TrEMBL record:
Keyword Hydrolase assigned: yes
Keywords associated with the record: Hydrolase, Metal-binding, Zinc
Presence of keyword Cytoplasm: no
Organism lineage: Eukaryota, Viridiplantae, Streptophyta, Embryophyta, Tracheophyta
A GO BP entry: D-amino acid catabolic process
Protein name: D-aminoacyl-tRNA deacylase-like isoform X1
GO molecular function: D-aminoacyl-tRNA deacylase activity; metal ion binding
Domain of life of the source: Eukaryota
Length: 316
């Protein structure tokens, strides 16, 4: 089982952390994947390609076919953009489960698809915050989750690590060093134990948070995930839950009367999260205040029909 760390040379927020990581001990050249060079350190394989980070689909499958090594997980290094231009270090799962089959994905991926979320997302968010604090990046940089969005298509547990939000910060060496250190420590490359291995969980910590609702940076879910021991799967922001207003008495509206791809989005995200946490119990965590009454009622009804339990913050 190997871990792929993927960077692109055309993105300073991607190649910066990759270069900082490769400057650490133990790396040596590995095989090429078509024209993509790789570097090897223990069970970690770092790839550097020259395309958009969201454009290289099925890197896990392609690596397995080329090397006969089974890919256990993928970690992408990337830039983050935001209207606020605020400096940020972000972690998120990937997928576009809310898009219809005939929609054109704006940033890679496949409509109606979500990759299994990396079980490391929660533990690494907490580790990233500690690293950022120790490197005096806080409060200048915000350390945050993002909702599930964009590609590329993968089948392995996946997460993105990003530096935002403008060219000034994408090139920051201290931010690149923090991300590199997160990967180094998080994967146990320094000799200490890896952080966020689901298989090493304790039996009383098997609840997994599936975030439903809220803004892109998932503040209500963040409040829970920042607590020690919390595991997190997909995070469906409000824009990933398109719900068509039934335009009638919303109090008694049936779930089947509310159009949109919100049910597809929840189902796909739940199943992908389940696949990433074998033996775990995936609980929906709702940002209640982000929904109108009829929306919340419909979502709760759908979750009940799908036998998806709803968890409170203390359940995780």
């Amino acid at each position: 089982m190997v871990t792929l760390v993927v960077a692109t040379t055309i993105d300073p927020a991607s190649i910066g952390p990759a270069s900082a990581l490769l400057a650490m001990p133990g790396w040596h050249p590995g095989p090429f994947l078509q024209d993509i060079p790789s570097f090897v350190n223990g069970e970690v394989r770092l790839l550097k390609h020259d395309n958009s980070i969201v454009a290289e689909d099925h890197l896990d499958k392609r690596w397995e076919e080329a090397t006969n090594e089974v890919v256990d997980e993928i970690i992408f290094l990337s830039k983050h953009t935001a209207v606020s231009n605020r400096p940020a270090l972000t972690v998120h799962p990937i997928g576009i489960p809310h898009l219809r089959e005939d929609d054109v994905p704006p940033q890679g991926g496949k409509p109606g698809w979500a990759a299994p979320p990396s079980p490391r997302i929660g533990p690494w968010l907490r580790l990233l915050k500690k690293i950022a604090e120790s490197h005096n990046l806080i409060p200048e940089f915000e350390v945050t989750l993002e909702g599930t969005h964009h590609g590329p298509v993968t089948n392995s547990p996946t997460m993105f690590l990003e530096i935002g939000s403008t060219a000034e910060y994408w090139k920051r060496q201290d931010a690149a060093q923090a991300i590199a250190l997160l990967v180094w420590e998080g994967l146990g490359l320094g000799g200490c134990g890896a952080v966020g291995n689901w298989n090493s969980r304790s039996s009383d910590r098997n609840k997994v948070l599936l975030g439903i609702g809220g803004g892109h940076y998932a503040p209500r879910h963040m409040d829970v995930v920042l607590k020690d021991g919390v595991w997190v799967g997909h995070l469906l922001s409000g824009y990933s839950l398109p719900m068509e207003d039934p335009g009638q008495s919303k109090v008694d509206t049936n779930v089947k009367d509310i159009g949109g791809t919100w049910k597809q989005s929840i189902r796909v995200a739940f199943e992908a999260t389940q696949s990433a946490f074998p033996g775990g119990e995936v609980l929906a965590h709702l940002d209640h205040k982000s929904f109108k009454g009829w929306q919340k009622s419909a979502i709760m009804g759908f979750l009940a029909k799908q036998n998806i339990r709803v968890g409170k913050p203390e359940d995780f």
